[in-house]
């Protein structure tokens, strides 16, 4: 009887104790957007990734993750088949109906907005920290980003004359297009001290020989993927009008990796600094 009383007393006392909470498993994550996926790796959360989109190509390990398609053409079935807890993405992902389907299926959607500036990168880091449960690591990455940004801005070369005219060409296997206002390409040109050779329109539009010749760019900017899709530099220069530009006469073509140039991820300071050096190497441009 005494033993039973002691046991009962123990149970009663234990009812008021706060037992340590069981550690929650890390959320299963699908990341849509190359820069966001890169940030997930930088936060040390790669083990949480169960899927990524086709723009998630850096680091190399991201290429071996299951793919859910292109970020603007997702399917709910493809994402749900990976049983994610969280979808990490930006407002560029879609279609919107698919995003709502995923929410309705119980997937937590962590999304951030794009603005083609440093603030966009900061928001992406914050969102990735929230999605992965690694806010402390995200705060550390924010500090590193700001330090890198300050160093890159201080090191930007000064141009001797008017800003060079640069034409950005997007040609990833489809009909070639050129960039106007409101694009990541134009934002990068401005950050690097160049001016877009084409003005007067927003977004992207079809590339025509007449517009390219009239733009008379000092430099053609594209991506490594676009040059490869064209069949190499010689074939790329055969795109409409390019062979009749000052850029072609001097063979000025700069084509880095697409995510590096346009991704607005944690390597943005280095990408801007690199492009600024290329722009500064162009002889004094025409006013």
Write a concise keyword list for the protein shown above.
2 domains; 287 residues; Rossmann fold; globular; six-stranded mixed β-sheet; 10 strands; disordered N terminus
Describe this structure in words.
The chain is α/β, with parallel strands linked by helices. The chain has two domains: 29-154, Rossmann fold (3-Layer(aba) Sandwich); 165-280, Nitrogenase molybdenum iron protein domain (Rossmann fold), CATH 3.40.50. Helix content is 41%, strand content 13%. The chain has helices at 2-14, 34-42, 76-80, 96-104, 118-132, 135-154, 184-191, 209-215, 224-230, 233-236, 246-249, 258-262, 268-280, and strands at 29-31, 49-52, 86-90, 108-112, 165-170, 177-179, 195-196, 204-206, 219-221, 253-254. Strands 5, 6, 7, 8, 9 and 10 form a six-stranded mixed beta sheet that branches. A four-stranded parallel beta sheet has the order 2-1-3-4, with helices on both faces. Strand 3 (86-90), helix 4 and strand 4 form a beta-alpha-beta unit. Helix 5 (118-132) runs antiparallel to helix 6 (135-154) and helix 6 packs parallel to helix 13 (268-280). The longest helix is centred in the middle third of the chain and has 20 residues, at 135-154. It is globular. Residues 1-17 have low confidence and may be disordered.
């Amino acid at each position: 009887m005494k033993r039973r009383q002691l046991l009962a007393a123990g149970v009663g006392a234990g009812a008021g104790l706060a037992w340590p909470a069981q550690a929650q498993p890390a959320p299963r994550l699908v990341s849509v957007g190359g820069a966001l996926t890169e940030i997930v790796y930088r936060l040390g959360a790669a083990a949480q990734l169960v899927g990524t989109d086709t723009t998630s190509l850096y680091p190399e390990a991201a290429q071996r993750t299951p793919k859910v398609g292109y970020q603007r053409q997702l399917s709910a079935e493809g994402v749900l088949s990976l049983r994610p807890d969280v979808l990490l993405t930006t407002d560029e992902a879609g279609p919107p109906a698919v995003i709502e389907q995923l929410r309705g299926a119980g997937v937590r959607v962590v999304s951030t907005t794009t603005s083609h500036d440093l603030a966009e990168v900061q928001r992406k880091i914050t969102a990735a920290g929230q999605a992965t449960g690694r806010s402390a690591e995200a705060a550390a990455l924010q500090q590193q980003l700001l330090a890198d940004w300050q160093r890159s801005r201080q090191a930007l070369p000064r141009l001797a004359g008017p800003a060079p005219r640069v034409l950005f060409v997007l040609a990833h296997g489809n009909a070639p297009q050129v960039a106007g206002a409101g694009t990541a390409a134009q934002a990068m040109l401005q950050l690097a001290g160049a001016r877009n050779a084409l003005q007067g329109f927003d977004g992207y539009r079809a590339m025509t020989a007449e517009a390219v010749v009239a733009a008379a760019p000092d430099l053609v900017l594209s991506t490594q993927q676009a040059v490869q899709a064209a069949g190499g530099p010689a074939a790329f220069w055969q795109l409409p009008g390019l062979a009749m530009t000052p850029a072609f006469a001097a063979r000025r073509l700069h084509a880095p990796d697409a995510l590096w140039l346009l991704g607005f991820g944690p390597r943005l300071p280095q990408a801007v600094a690199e492009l600024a050096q290329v722009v500064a190497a162009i002889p004094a441009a025409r006013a």
